[in-house]
Amino acid sequence: MLFKKPSILVTSKLPGNALEAFGEDYKIKSLAGKRAPDKKELKKLFAKADGAITLLSDQIDETVLTGSKVKIIANYAVGYNNIDIKTASEKNILVTNTPDVLTDATADLAWALILSAARRIPEGEKIVRSGKFKGWAPELLLGMDLSHKTIGIVGMGRIGRAVARRALAFGMKIVYADSRRLLPSEEEPYGAKFVDLETLLKDSDIVSLHCPLTDETRRILGRDRLFSMRKGAVLINTARGPIVDEEALAEALESHLFAAGLDVYEKEPEVHPALLKMKNAVLLPHIGSAGRETREEMARMAVNNIIAFFDGKVPPNLIPEQVTGVTH
Ligand code: DGY
Predict the structure, then answer these.
(1) Of 6, 51, 188, 315, which has the fewest CB atoms closer than 10 Å, so is most exposed?
(2) pLDDT reading at 207 higher than 70
(3) Strand, coil or helix: what is 261?
(4) Does the pLDDT at position 122 exceed 90?
(5) Is residue 328 situated within a structural domain?
(6) How far apart, in whole angstroms, are the C-alpha atoms of residue 54 and residue 60?
(7) In a shared domain, residues 80 and 124
(8) In a mutational test of the pocket of ligand 1, which residue from 53, 57, 106 has the highest number of ligand atoms less than 8 Å from its CB?
(9) Are 302 and 269 part of one and the same domain?
(10) How far is the CA of 79 from the centre of ligand 1 (A)?
(11) How sure is the predictor about 325, in pLDDT bands with cuts at 50, 70 and 90?
């Protein structure tokens, strides 16, 4: 053990019993049940803890990291755009995430949104519950057929590929855009064609976003690109809200797109009021990875990363930016 009884901050209640693995060797400060800590509170807590398990909604920026005692942050998410990685790395603070385990759950939810948006599921539900269902009708809630259509996947990483796998079962053609082209052997199982973003937007009936939020991807779908999408297409975002200009999306939904399915928002938990008014927007509260087993496994991963670190080992899920040159 590197430290005697390290103190670990856990900023929220986590599903399952993963924290039990800390046993008597650690001192746990869990904020379970309390409201989410603001930046000022996080700064104070980080000044006292040796390690932290954080949520994607905890903004761990330079202010929080300045004066921090924390040596390892295990982010309870695959995305870690909530953490200032540059500052953390400069301060020799390790950051881990929870890759792989949530791939299928998130791809499932992307598909739930694709089907909901294309086939107008929430509108249908509302009709039935409000007593407005007057019987079968040839033109009731006509939606978009999916088979033989093209799905454009932006970001062909683990989740993008899991979405592509499911698209094959729906008989769809797959195009993808990414900062790097996959190897032919990686493309082959999906019959996926590598295209630039402009081509993808022009040629896809469904566009599904699976890239991380970085300086390069922030608002990559602005007004011009949204209106360059195929008329009557569907946009799905289970990645991060700030990738899309929400106001422009609401405008595109009025006249250009068939529908959108969103699980993430620019300023979570706020949702742009214009989007709330659009009945062709299917809106979910960031539940991409919210399968019980998935969320329990994410908790175990976060705990294991912390334990590995204090056992003097390299945490298994160190973020790629920190994989080289790790020193304790
Ligand atoms: C993640 O892990 O980044 C997801 O957004 C959480 O559901």
Answers:
(1) 188
(2) yes
(3) strand
(4) yes
(5) no
(6) 9
(7) no
(8) 106
(9) no
(10) 6
(11) low
Atom of ligand 1 nearest to the CA of 288: 7
Pocket, ligand 1, Cβ cutoff 6 A: 56, 77-79, 102, 288-289
Contact call for residues 246 and 272 (beta carbons, < 8 A) = yes
**pLDDT tens per residue, range 264-304:** 999 999 999 999 999 999 999 999 999 999 999 999 999 99
Cα-to-centroid distance, 158 and ligand 1 (Å): 13
Which of 120, 161, 230, 286 does the annotation list as catalytic?
Answer: 286
Which atom from ligand 1 is nearest to the alpha carbon of 290?
Answer: 7
Range of the domain at 262: 103-283
Question: Does 240 participate in catalysis according to the annotation?
Answer: yes
Measured CA to CA, the distance from residue 165 to residue 144 in angstroms comes to 20
Residues 128 and 87 in one domain: no
Same domain, 242 and 152: yes
At 328, is the pLDDT very low, low, confident or very high (cuts 50, 70, 90)? very low
User: Which one from 120, 230, 240, 295 is the annotated catalytic residue?
Assistant: 240
Task: Determine, yes or no, domain membership for 2.
Answer: no
pTM: 0.95
Atom of ligand 1 nearest to the CA of 239: 5
Give the DSSP per-residue string, 104-148.
HHHHHHHHHHHHHHHTTHHHHHHHHHTT---S--TTTT-----TT
My answer on whether 120 and 165 are in the same domain is yes
Taken in order 308, 313, 316, 317, the sign of the CA dihedral is: positive
Span from the CA of 77 to the centroid of ligand 1 (angstroms): 5
pLDDT at 281: 98
pLDDT band at 58 (very low <50, low <70, confident <90, very high): very high
pLDDT above 90 for 103: yes
Whichever domain contains 246, its CATH number is 3.40.50.720
